[in-house]
Amino acid sequence: MAELDQLRGSHHCIGTGRAMADLIFKIVHSRALENGGMISAEEILSVKAQFVVGLPSGMDFFERINQECMHASGSTASDPFSQDTLLSTLLSACGKGSAELAFKLQVEKCGADWLEIFFQAFSEVARNNISQDTWQNLIAAYVHAAEVYKAKMQVFDIIARNDVRTILSDCVAPFYRIFESDKIAKSINASINDVIARKYNIAGPSTVKITNDQMERFLTMLSKEMSLRLEQSVMAGNQTRIAS
Question: How far apart are CA 203 and CA 197, in angstroms?
């Protein structure tokens, strides 16, 4: 075994717990020093509230720990909730059925992996439709959902949030301008096809790439499917709250 290979074991969780404890007590200690060595029960609760609110800013840290654990366990499973894949995962949950029908040719030729690549490309373009603040709000929504559902969290637990549904609608809405202009359609498709081409290492025309007609068909179906999925997520969220 190579010297730097990561070993499986509880030390990963222990290391994470220690890192979090160090951070929390550092904040508490700093607050006590500011108050002449004293800190009240109310101030401790205030520090806790500030720490919880700041959890989304630690997303890079959480991802790094998760990657280390996955590597050490030998897992090759992808992370659907990383900052690189979160939007793709959510959009896929809202539009996979539409994509399977609209891009049937590509799916039959390349398999389910093509859909993952398409939604990754689709999400990269959609990401440009929202501001950096909105993106940070989406990350925060994921973190807060994780706080509630922990290891049992599912994709629709995130989508059930009002703020997430609004963000998803906002990032998709500009795509419907594709029906207004050939220029817009070609621009969107070119951006998506660039990603697909890189993934499949192809140049020039290919049946792996999407066409304008296919994209218009996808968006037409997506509008209906997305509305249905968003509504279903609300119903599922309400049932979960009642059960709890």
Answer: 7
Rounded to an integer, what distance in angstroms lies between the CA atom of residue 194 and that of residue 199? 9
Structure token digits, residue 30: 């700093």
Distance CA 219, CA 180 (A): 13
For residues 42 and 69, what is the distance between their CA atoms, to the nearest angstrom? 36
What pTM does this model have?
0.82
Closest to 58 measured CA to CA, from 14, 27, 99: 27
pLDDT digits (tens, 9 = 90+) for 41-67: 888 888 888 888 888 888 888 888 888
Rounded to a whole number, what is the largest CA-CA distance in the chain? 71
The long-range contacts involving 94-97, CB below 8 angstroms and separated by at least 24 positions, are 94/159, 94/168, 94/222, 94/225, 94/226, 94/229, 94/230, 95/119, 95/218, 95/221, 95/222, 95/225, 95/226, 95/229, 97/221, 97/225
Question: How far apart, in whole angstroms, are the C-alpha atoms of residue 196 and residue 122?
Answer: 10
CA nearest neighbour of 87 among 138, 44, 50, 38: 138
Instruction: Give Cβ neighbours of residue 121 (< 8 Å, ≥ 6 apart).
Output: 191, 192, 193, 194, 195, 196
For 126-160, the pLDDT digits (tens) are 999 999 999 999 999 999 898 888 888 889 999 99
Q: Encoding tokens for residue 160? A: 């059930």
What is the DSSP track for 82-94? STTTHHHHHHHHH
> Cα dist. 68→11, 22, 77 in Å?
11, 20, 13
